[in-house]
Amino acid sequence: MLRGACLCGGVSYTAGPPTGTAIACHCDECRRQSGHHFAAVPVSKRSLRLERQDTLRWYRASQIGKRGFCGTCGATLFWRGDEGAHVHLLMGALKAPTGLRLGAHVWVREKGDYYDIGADLPTYREGEEC
Ligand SMILES: [Zn+2]
């Protein structure tokens, strides 16, 4: 079971277990929203239990999904596709120990030009399954 919360505590949740690989997503959308790249892990939509959601806001960033964030402190929290059974949790909001490790870099063709990606993990030019 994973537990997460935003910086101000207006949003908190439990979810899990993970249903797939934890990924670093370097797409343009993720970078603009987060200020760098996403680190996110998928869980089933049905497993997500919002304990507090007073300040939770959803932004429709694309035709295929919405991005959940805290309207007070600005924490990036969720990516939820309209289709599919999964929601991605932003791993910076998870309470330790998570027991998780990043498994892949995705959308590296849109990564920023100000950093390099090491050879430690598999890389995908576009999305893997996310
Ligand atoms: Zn907050």
Automatic annotation (TrEMBL):
Pfam families noted in UniProt:
GFA
Q: Which UniProt keywords apply?
A: Lyase, Metal-binding, Zinc
Gene3D superfamilies, alphabetically?
glutathione-dependent formaldehyde- activating enzyme (gfa)
> Domain of life here?
Bacteria
Which ranges carry the CENP-V/GFA domain? 2-116
Q: Does the keyword Zinc apply?
A: yes
Protein family (similarity comment): Belongs to the Gfa family.
* Annotated PANTHER family: CENP-V_GFA DOMAIN-CONTAINING PROTEIN-RELATED (PTHR33337:SF40), GFA DOMAIN-CONTAINING PROTEIN (PTHR33337)
Its name, as the record gives it, is: GFA family protein
Organism for this UniProt entry? Roseovarius aquimarinus
